[in-house]
């Protein structure tokens, strides 16, 4: 088959354009000034050549500004309950130290998950206590975030029965309800661009970004009939206890950071959770209880609206080098390995 000169020229032009697009798509840059990788170009791996995808289940290219070798990584844009920074189930946490622990709190109360000079993250717990139980079964229903002089909340709305076609997320910013249009990659930015909410699926999954401070991946899920059967929660027929699965990534916590989860990022923290125990429970209800979702008045809270983080006093965590697989779903005192 003969190829005409014009067709040959067209093929060459298409190849050139494709090459340029590929080069642009395969290189990302770390923009965190706190990172040793600041402005360092990072080529994306071939299995995830772009930082977004039309497929919500696909892995995307992620710039890990805390990578010791300044390399981009592939990741799913959904909360991973088996990675550091996770808070899922009857709250089951994986700390910054890689240790799994449970913190039950109490239903209809609020607790500080993270409290630092420039950041406060609280959680509202919902739950129930069947007859004969000594404690509440609890789940995280809402997150409240205080950063600088702003407040933001995200919550799972109540549902008598779960329906994937209904969005169960509700948001507010500075006390006013805000709407994020349904649809994968739909997004909302605060007026000062210091907070972004982006949907990672059509409904019920988002990522909240606080530039150079934190990234929070959130899914809304129900208690399923299988969950109820296995754990004997005795969930009522008119409430599926929609709750949050959350994974936090932090970009510069201070060494004094507090909170149920935050303290596990302290460099010298000794986690009281015992590896090998079926359900390693840690306390701290009295230290971390707050009076509301958007208050920073717990006994150990550090947050101040005018708080300034000393960049010399930040904690560097190499999240990309931690392995929390190999049975982590069982919660048997898992320790993530480097």
Task: Describe what you observe in this structure.
There is one protein chain. The protein is mainly β and 338 residues long. The chain is built from 3 helices and 19 strands. It has helices at 5-25, 225-231, 285-288, and strands spanning 27-29, 41-43, 60-63, 72-75, 86-88, 92-94, 100-102, 110-116, 119-128, 137-147, 150-156, 169-173, 176-178, 187-189, 196-199, 205-210, 214-221, 243-250, 289-290. The strands form 4 sheets. The chain has an 8-stranded antiparallel sheet, with no helix packed on it. A 7-stranded antiparallel sheet has the order 13-12-11-10-9-8-19. The radius of gyration is 22 Å and the shape is globular.
Tell me the distance between the termini: 56 Å
Number of extended strands? 19
Q: pLDDT average, as an integer?
A: 86
Strand-residue fraction? 25-35%
Order of helices and strands: HEEEEEEEEEEEEEEEEEHEHE
Major sheet description: 8 strands, antiparallel
Kindly name the structural category: mainly beta
Structural shape = globular
Number of helices: 3
Question: Could you list the spans in which at least 5 consecutive residues all have pLDDT below 50?
Answer: 11-25, 316-338
**Overall helicity:** under 10%
